[in-house]
Amino acid sequence: MLVIGIAGGSGSGKTTVVNAITQRLHEKVVVIPQDSYYKDSSHLPIEERQKVNFDHPDSIDFRLLNEQLRDLKSGKSIRQPVYSYLTCSRSKTETVTVQPADVIIVEGILIFTCAELREQMDIKIFVDADDDDRLMRVMARDIIERGKTVETVIARYTKTVKPMYLQFIEPSKRYADIIIPQGGHNKVAIDIISATIEKALHSKGQQ
Hints:
Layout: E1 2-7, H1 14-24, E2 29-33, H2 46-49, H3 62-73, E3 78-84, E4 89-98, E5 103-107, H4 115-119, E6 123-127, H5 131-145, H6 150-169, E7 178-180, H7 187-206
Parallel strand pairs: 1-5, 1-6, 2-5, 6-7
Antiparallel strand pairs: 3-4
């Protein structure tokens, strides 16, 4: 089993890289998104939920994420939580059953800020992208997928996304084994990483 961490700022192209790597690998791959592990805010009034800073490490339930990753590594299935951006809450009844796989990809903007989580990873990848490109992708995603307005997206980017990127996410780049410039459009880097993963899997299989 190989655990790969893929981090980077919001809109950097992490999902594109994850999908590209998954399509190239013949082994069974499971993706564990950090976004499923946001702490539940259902106890707060809806106005307060809208103020939650999703780009701060304190917003992530790293205890549960680490625990479930350890379970997968030991061959156990997990019940991954389901989080809704629309209600800013974790489902009380719904979970997703995830089975162990040859390759586990943990993906998210803040995953390298947690030392315990980093220690569980075999390969750490940081997806880098131009600030303007990231802003455009964040705007498109939040408006289309999360029902936000242009004004609220720009306000959130200015107030939390950019400052948190500079304070927490960009500095976590130093923990990466591999940095992919140009985000998910860097086909050469993705090809090299896929070959590296296959080689690492082969080496582990021979041990």
